[in-house]
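Sequence in, structure out. First:
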Amino acid sequence: MVEVILDLENFFDSSVDFIQVSVEKMRKTHGPSFNFNTVKALLALRQGMSKSDKESVLKECKEILDSFKSEDFKGIQDGIFSNIDT
């Protein structure tokens, strides 16, 4: 549980250029339940980013998330993000 909080803190503290690193780590850690809708919801909560920055980050994050395949998550069950209504 603490790891999720630290991951979220890292996401909200990351600069625009490094959010993608945070997203990739969370996808690897939390599995398929950390998806594009989750990223969109988290970005909506993020303060201090322009609309164009958010759009750019979403585009890059979609490419990152799409690069994962189902076999990348063998043994990972639904993570905590499956319990969140995005």
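Second:
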Amino acid sequence: MLTRRTLLFILFAALICCNSTTIFAEAAVQLQLTMIGNGVGPYYALAGQSTQLKIEIFNVGPNDVFLIQGEAYLDPELNGNWQLAHSEDLGNFHLTKLESAVWTFNLQMPSHIQAQNLTNGVPQVELLAKIAYSTNDGKHSATSQFLLSVPGAAIKQSDYSIYQIVLGVVLITIAVIIVKNAKSRSIRKAQS
């Protein structure tokens, strides 16, 4: 029984590590953010140029919301260091349930941006959009990430898969050690 509990704990810990952004995200996000453009993406933004982007802000919750601030973030060096690329006051724009608004803004894509070559074609980066809004119970924020194709960007190969493999090997090694220790304790108890 101890072995099963231990294994369940390890699997639960691994799931938390792999999905921490999903698990610890704001529970009651009321806004849904969708980029408007050519199909379902990716959306194009030329390196070193300003590109107009449109994000639909849809109120899916039961309460009225007032849109306060729109912010767009980029990670130009692909090192997890998100930098504010655009910020705009949304003027407390009022949305009732199932209403939407379109936030149109010009994004200045840095010329030195490094992009992942995920498709063996046009390099791609992610845009993080954040909308601050208020409801009757206070201020909140909704975020969403969008894939941008960035012609003219320097290509940087993604090495996330290596980290995932290393994390998996470490977790499996820890699980094996815990199981062996539990079995050896069970054998010792049975012998004594």
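Remark: Helices lie at 2-18, 20-23, 160-191.
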